[in-house]
Amino acid sequence: MKNNLNSAYVITTLVRTFFDGFAKGMADAHDMDFSNKQEVKKMMLNHYENISKSYAEVMFSILSVVTHRSFDEVEVGLQQLSAEQRGDVGQLFAVACNDSLLYDVMVEAYKRNFSYLLEGRVSSVQEHLSACEQADSMTIKTAVGEEIVLRLLVRTVVQAYLSGMRIGKTDTLTLKQSTIYALLITNANILINHAPIDESRLSEVNDVYDYLKMVCGTQEHCHIIFSEMENEMKHLTEI
To answer: Global pTM?
Structure first.
């Protein structure tokens, strides 16, 4: 497995994954057909103020892992903000991104994906890849290896989806595994292959494992994703 990946591409893809998971979680909470753009748009406008809060709660720690080798490094940045009596959300994410260029990439990805939600949709794979052309050319590497990045992708999917569901409902939550696996497949493919899903290979797919294996390319990647999925689901039962 690769030791380091392109930080800018990883960050933009994780930001897209958050918005994808959050929106689908809200839609499932309302038993809504996500292809109905007008209804999705109305739902998002009704919960406009919750999006940024949920993003901060889910993504600060995840992005911090991408760009730091230890939590101690993050703590140093947070202590500096505290000493200078600063600490708004933008400054916190500047610490999380650990580089001004990466912070700018993250802000741009956030604004882009936020605007799509207010249109009642998430970005298509091709739209995301086109927007990532500049990020692809950047040379700043992740502080962690490919395995951790894959685990962060799973964590983003599950936590964003759950955050969307919690905003959409106050009673017992029923997570739809079919939605979660669809999110994993789509966004893992973006992260790993930098391309839309190869539909010519769908005849090889018999179940979720086959689909993920096709997307992931290796059994090792599949094992990481399923392992982290199990960890996340176990954590949810303990909350």
So the answer is: 0.94
